[in-house]
From TrEMBL:
Keywords: Pyrimidine biosynthesis, Transferase. This is aspartate carbamoyltransferase. It comes from marine metagenome. The keyword Translocase does not apply. It is an enzyme of class 2 (transferase).
Length: 204
């Protein structure tokens, strides 16, 4: 954690942070923003629910900072032991963002434009008993989505464990497989930009 920033401070060539421990994951944020815009046609003013391991989940650390730049309303859903780090919440709210913290996933579904699920990361827990207390605490099923907006999308940085039931995969809300594909093209574009490679607007 922090290695990418340390490297960037020490050298004068581009450093791409593809995830630094439990810190941040800015390239994931690029593909996440692309996926959201692809689905909704905009990034402005959306209700976004971030769910699961918000303490160690580097994807949500980066994504939350990006979303509030577009006026997103954030709802942070996690057990108490895995809440978003207080310094991140402070950064978001100091900038004027509307942020709500809760442990109740079910109560957030109806108003959500995006539900961003994350796995509980067993490898981050020094004590397996602590992991057992929260493992499987959230599982989204197809039946849970009955009251959701038709346009609502479900995302996940993958890999998943059991936080999204397979019944969700065949619903029109599921966007995580397309999201994974978008990761390829987003990172290709980033590499091209850093290397000065010009790509035609229309590629056969």
């Amino acid at each position: 954690q922090g290695a990418a920033q340390y490297s960037a401070d020490a050298i004068e060539i581009p450093v791409l942070n593809a995830g630094d421990g439990a810190g941040n994951h800015p390239t994931q944020t690029l593909l996440d923003l692309f996926t959201i815009r692809e689905a909704h046609g905009t990034l402005e003013g959306l209700n976004v629910v971030l769910v699961g391991d918000l303490r160690y989940g580097r994807t949500v650390h980066s994504l939350s900072h990006a979303l509030v730049r577009f006026g997103a309303t954030l709802t942070l859903v996690s057990p108490d032991s895995l809440r978003m780090p207080s310094e991140i919440v402070s950064d978001l709210t100091t900038g004027g963002a509307e942020v709500t913290e809760t442990a109740d996933l079910a109560g957030t579904i109806a108003e959500a434009d995006v539900i961003y699920m994350t796995r509980i990361q067993k490898e981050r827990f020094p004590d397996e008993d602590e992991y057992t207390k929260v493992a499987g605490i959230y599982m989204l099923t197809a039946s849970d989505l009955a009251g959701a907006k038709k346009s609502m999308i479900i995302m996940h940085p993958l890999p998943r464990v059991n936080e999204i039931h397979p019944s969700v995969d065949s619903t029109h809300h599921a966007r995580y497989f397309q999201q994974a594909f978008n990761g390829v093209v987003a990172r290709m574009a980033l590499l091209c930009d850093c290397l000065g490679v010009k790509v035609p607007k229309k590629v056969k």
